[in-house]
UniProtKB/TrEMBL annotation:
Gene3D superfamilies per UniProt: Homeodomain-like
Origin superkingdom: Bacteria
Keywords associated with the record: DNA-binding, Transcription, Transcription regulation
Keyword Translocase carried by entry: no
Name the UniProt record assigns to this protein: HTH araC/xylS-type domain-containing protein
Pfam families in alphabetical order: HTH_18 (PF12833)
Matching InterPro entries: AraC_XylS_family_regulators (IPR050204), Homeodomain-like_sf (IPR009057), HTH_AraC (IPR018060), HTH_AraC-typ_CS (IPR018062), Tscrpt_reg_AraC-type_HTH (IPR020449)
Keyword Transcription found: yes
HTH araC/xylS-type domain: residues covered: 201-301
GO MF entries: DNA-binding transcription factor activity; sequence-specific DNA binding
Length: 313
């Protein structure tokens, strides 16, 4: 199957998606694929030759994507029927695009290695309360899922896909079921700030923008000062808004920032210091605990993927 056919197959799976001719020039390689009850999982490499822009809609599925290397630059999205034409939110290393919402997706060109899991909507929705509402905060959070349990489950799923063994199908089935519950719990935990004391959207953007800057990693006190609130208000409000502690969020953002730097020729020691770790050894321990590999092993994997890339046909 050619790259174009494979990309079209991925794009059309359960979708009502606009794919204008000529706007999605990419080569693609499916490393592994698994059809489960209520879920379809792929491990894919994509190489976009130029900036990519398209509309995305899945009527009956949650589209969960864990980017295994730094996501392509300026990857962002907006909810077409809810947000204005200029309001885009950056996509994190994990996204869980909800069903029935049309999104406008943009990113620069480049390589992308992802674990993609298309979950039937009922797997998640059955755990949501009858009064559940898709608030703006919940929709925005789907573009950057910060839940550590969801991340761990996706990494386990990726490992099983890459290294199948006895019981892999049954284990992957269990993982997708657990992930569905965790996604529902994560969504339920995100209350609206006006009712339950969460942080306003502009304060959350200040935090994300500060973390994206190069240089010294900010402390909680510095972030609270930037937002104009106390540290206590920041920590309590952040958990209400994002469904996770700000400590866990900062830890994952540090790892994601380190991944982006490891994709360059910057020394590992410099990466450690620039992302707020006290030493290279502390960084190596934390990085391996979060990803399962050392920074050196991760860099070798990224460079190998960039060098090889998906085959062009």
């Amino acid at each position: 199957m050619s790259s174009e056919e494979t990309l079209a197959r991925l794009a059309s799976f359960g979708a009502k998606t606009e794919l204008p001719s000529g706007e999605r020039s990419a080569t693609v390689k499916v490393e592994a694929e698994l059809q489960l009850s209520g879920a379809h999982v792929w491990l894919v490499q994509l190489d976009h030759e130029r900036p990519d822009e398209h509309m995305f809609l899945r009527p009956d599925q949650y589209w969960v994507d864990l980017c295994l290397i730094p996501r392509r630059p300026n990857a962002r999205a907006r909810y077409v029927n809810l947000w204005g034409p200029h309001r885009f939110s950056n996509m994190g290393s994990i996204i869980a695009l909800p069903p029935k919402f049309k999104l406008h997706l943009k990113s620069e060109g480049g390589k992308h290695i992802s674990l993609i899991c298309a979950l039937e909507a009922d797997l998640v929705d059955r755990w949501l309360p009858a009064q559940f509402e898709w608030t703006d905060r919940r929709l925005e959070a789907c573009l950057n899922v910060s839940n550590a349990t969801v991340r761990s489950l996706l990494l386990n799923l990726a490992h099983e896909m890459r290294h199948p063994d006895v019981g892999t199908r049954e284990l992957c089935q269990s993982i997708t079921q657990m992930m569905s519950i965790e996604l529902a719990r994560n969504l339920i935990a995100m209350d609206e700030p006006t009712e339950h004391g969460g942080l306003a959207a502009w304060r959350l953007r200040i935090i994300d923008e500060r973390l994206a800057r190069p240089g010294k990693w900010p402390t909680l006190s510095e972030l609270a000062l930037d937002c104009g609130v106390s540290v206590r208000h920041l920590t309590r409000g952040f958990r209400t808004s994002r469904g996770c502690s700000i400590g866990d969020y900062l830890a994952q953002q540090r790892i994601d920032a380190a991944k982006r730097r490891l994709a360059t020729d910057e020394s590992i020691k410099s990466v450690a210091l620039s992302t707020g770790f006290s030493s290279q050894s502390t960084f190596t321990y934390s990085f391996r605990r979060a990803t399962g590999v050392t920074p050196h092993e991760y860099r070798k994997r990224v460079l190998r993927a960039v060098k090889e890339g998906p085959p062009r046909k």
